[in-house]
């Protein structure tokens, strides 16, 4: 939540002062998930909110986090007629938590923004191997073909909803799945964005 630092407009990673418009990873990979917006950075005090929400099941935080996300999206410019699609949780994460954080947040954002929501517009095609501790390149390779999109999304402009954005690899994989059915990912909206590449999100 600290002050403004130069950021990559594609993945929102912090940029060194001498960097160009895009970070080195996005220049190589050309992410297809459009604009990335997060309500705050995954650092104090915001990280404690995310840990309580995801790790302790504090669903009472959903309205506040979702409202912060909606405010962040409104701040970036005029509204567009978008369809909200949450990132699907892994079966293991659903069993462990009992809920999909992204789907719960998406419902709040949809209500705040008065936008339609396709809660199951994306689904996982397989169980992925753990991404914890893996570098950017390994994460991107490990997520190929992870998602399939509902054919009913063809022709729609989609805003992906997630709880935390790390390297952007998961959003990129989801955007590719949307493109395969004729949908367009115009952006990703999350509660938090990790400012440092060393931190890894739990699936």
TrEMBL record:
A GO molecular-function descriptor: transferase activity
- Name the domain of life this protein comes from: Bacteria
The text of the family note is: Belongs to the ComF/GntX family.
Keyword Hydrolase listed? The answer is no
The record's annotation in Pfam families points to: Pribosyltran
Domain Phosphoribosyltransferase spans what residues?
141-195
Protein name as annotated? Phosphoribosyl transferase
Q: Which UniProt keywords apply?
A: Transferase
Tell me which species this is from. Bordetella avium (strain 197N)
